[in-house]
Amino acid sequence: MNAVPLAYWVHDLNPFLIRFTDNIGIRYYGLAYVLGFVVAAWMCTRYAKVGRSKVPAAKVNDLIMALIIGVLVGGRVGHYFLYDDWRSFPTDPFGIFKVWDGGMAFHGGLVGVAIALLWFSRANKISFLHVSDVIASVTPIGLFFGRIANFINGELWGKVSYVPWAMIFPLSAPPGTPISMIPPRHPSQLYEAGMEGLLLFAFMQWRFWKTPVVERTPGRLSGEFLVAYAIARSIGEVFREPDFGISPIMGLSRGTFYSLFMVVGGFGLIVYTLLVDDRKKS
User: What is the DSSP string of 56-118?
Assistant: First the structure.
């Protein structure tokens, strides 16, 4: 391997805001989750106060707590079963509980959120599709914080590239590898933060505030979110280096393959809401 000119920025960010020991402290990754839920709670409360949401402001905390459980449990279980970790079950049957080892999957978290929303909507007698639209409109900002945390951690890096904005991620090479021997890569975490986070958030907020989609066709915004996220995720996967040891499915990365189901589900929701709207008009 030829030495790489040190004209590229070397990732040296500390994943800890405050560190107490080598492995214990306040991590930016954890703060990203907290900030995402806090912003979501604030936005849902504002929706209720201005009459844009049927979820009462007094019930927002219950909704957010249900989402936290759904995201954490669904994300962890999803990573364990969707990304090959389940192979360790015979030798380490309790590995799924080792949250300190990391590992969260968006698609698993999505299932967990759906279950949490179903429980909340039934418990409070609020339309499931309406509640899902409300949450879909705020979810991208949490995704943005999460991808920024991925970047700070120096994980989920992109494929090797020599574009001017490429970066050197020391964790992408075996320990002890000289920096000059580590090839630069796409900062794919930032690409995803922009597409899955900011761009999708702007679209969701435009649809929520500037169109009658939530009031007229409950579920339509959720369908659009599923399709838009799947597209953004698939584009990001083009630049992202697949996780080591994670085999593709049908030639597609795991993230892209699982996103295909989101496209199907999203279009299914959109078609359903259009049919319901036509019936109302007739």
Answer: -GGGHHHHHHHHHHHHHHHHHHHHHHHSSGGGGTTT-TTGGG-GGG----HHHHHHHHHHHHH
Angle between the N-to-C axes of helices 220-239 and 128-153, in degrees from 0 to 180, rounded to the nearest 10: 20
Task: Please choose, from the candidates 96, 104, 102, the residue with its C-alpha nearest in 3D space to the C-alpha of residue 79.
Answer: 104
Residue 158 has pLDDT above 90, yes or no: yes
Instruction: Write down the H helix ranges in 125-194.
Output: 128-153, 188-192
**How far apart are the C-alpha atoms of 12 and 31, rounded to whole Å?**
19
Q: What kind and span of H or E run contains 154?
A: none
pLDDT digits (tens, 9 = 90+) for 198-217: 999 999 999 999 999 999 99
Over residues 232-251, the pLDDT tens digits come to: 999 999 999 987 667 888 98
